[in-house]
Amino acid sequence: MTASTATGPLVLSVDVGTSAVKAGVYTTDGARVAGSSAALTATSPRRGHWTMDAGQVESALVAAVREVAAAVPARRVAAMGVSTAAPTPLVVDGEGRPLSEVCTFSDARAAGTVRQLVADGAGPGFLRRTGNRLAVATTSALTATALWDAADRPAGARFGHLASLVTHRLTGRWVMDPTHAAFTGLTDMHTSGTWSETAIADLGVPPELLPELLSSSEAAGPLTPAAAERLGLPAGIPVTVGAADTACAALGVGCVEHGRTFESVGTSGVLTICRDHPVPMEGAMNRPHAVPGRWLSHWAMSSSGGSLRWLAETGVGSTAGHDPADLAALTELAAAAPPGSDGVLFLPYLCGERSPVWDADARGAWAGLGLGTGPAHLVRSVLESTGYALRQFMELERKESGLEVTEVASVGGGSASATWSQIKADVTGRTFRRVPDGNAACRGASLLACSAAGLVDDLASAAERRSPELSTPVRPTPDAAARETYDRMFEAYLSLYPALRDVDAMLTTAAEGGPT
């Protein structure tokens, strides 16, 4: 469908990630009529710190939205939805001006505080209260407190995630929704719509820093005249509080019933499972769904697609000259190597890792390199590593919840590669079905916009109706020799991180100049 053939009201949504801002315009039944994107850059000024510049985010947001708004009759845009990466903490002053950069989900500056809390025995209580393991990625409020301290604790300061900043720029209101709040460490899974006084006291976070907590599909406010002028949109349209990107993607692919599963293939890689009740787990990140009464569990890799981009950008092993955005060329190179990459194994922990090891000091590694190792082996081993991680997640999911994952919908930029999907199917022994239509998080955010504007009554049923067509199933190979190779490589993968854990910690100490 094109903008010229669409009829009725339209909704516009944005998905602000760590590598790009994507914008889309949709009809109320979920058909995309226009799309655009603007690049972002995350940087690491020092080991363990990963940030984005708030000014760059705003400029990219304006560029992406103006482009997509110009492609449609802007007067027909009835609402705006917001999706952002999470957790992405920052602090602002009383007027909403950033006092810090935006930390990405890979930022580990609060790792020392978390280690001390774990050593003090806070882990079991945290798991019972939040449903999550006590870790940097599940306690973004600790990162925000460190940012506040670095800014000399100014009066009137507030903490939020990237979504809070985006919504404030659009409406002037400083808010957060439960899908983001669950990863601050300051909520209780049994009362997810409010901040937990117990959690606030346990983590030592000043309550005056906290944003207003509202539901994902609620309107944070009308688009201000100033924001409307910058974006080329009508002033006064409702703007949603929004949700975290993977929660929005769950809406976008219709993952709203118990047991439904999909994977997001972007800079990070996430296996998401929908539940009808919260299930506390050590390995996964757990939070409320944007759909009331549903929950999501995320088995999260920090740098799956990021590892492939790193490989291309650095030119390791003569991959120089390959455009990191040219996924087809990179995966074509990988296809020249055999299953198992002739015994070359990659550990994709380039910026620490979340599931299942929760180790900010973990780092990437290759094992099995030899004089015969070439670029094809290196690229294929990186692709295979995501398959090993997914297989590990699936086995842990079965052990912890009893759920057997048999089929996975695949979304995100990396899902465009048939080769990558086939490798994951072969490694895991599961069927994958790719979602061919663009950005699932944008699609889900557009549904939240419809809800905020009163254009849909029930999020779950609307998500079911709007769920996109999936590709032909990508099934595991029938080649018994390839399956046996992957079984052996998977056992080696499970052994690699435990063997390197102490070495990684030593390297972190050496890099930071600490005592031996």
TrEMBL record:
Family: Belongs to the FGGY kinase family.
Record-linked Pfam families: FGGY_C, FGGY_N
Protein's UniProt name: Gluconokinase/xylulokinase
Ranges where the Carbohydrate kinase FGGY C-terminal domain occurs: 264-453
Keyword terms, alphabetized: Carbohydrate metabolism, Kinase, Transferase, Xylose metabolism
Keyword Transferase: yes
Any GO BP annotation: D-xylose metabolic process
Coiled-coil regions, chain positions: none
Keyword RNA-binding: no
PROSITE patterns, per the entry: FGGY_KINASES_2
Ranges of residues in domain Carbohydrate kinase FGGY N-terminal: 11-252
Family annotation (CDD domains): ASKHA_NBD_FGGY
GO MF terms, alphabetically ordered: kinase activity; phosphotransferase activity, alcohol group as acceptor
Gene3D superfamilies, sorted: 3.30.420.40
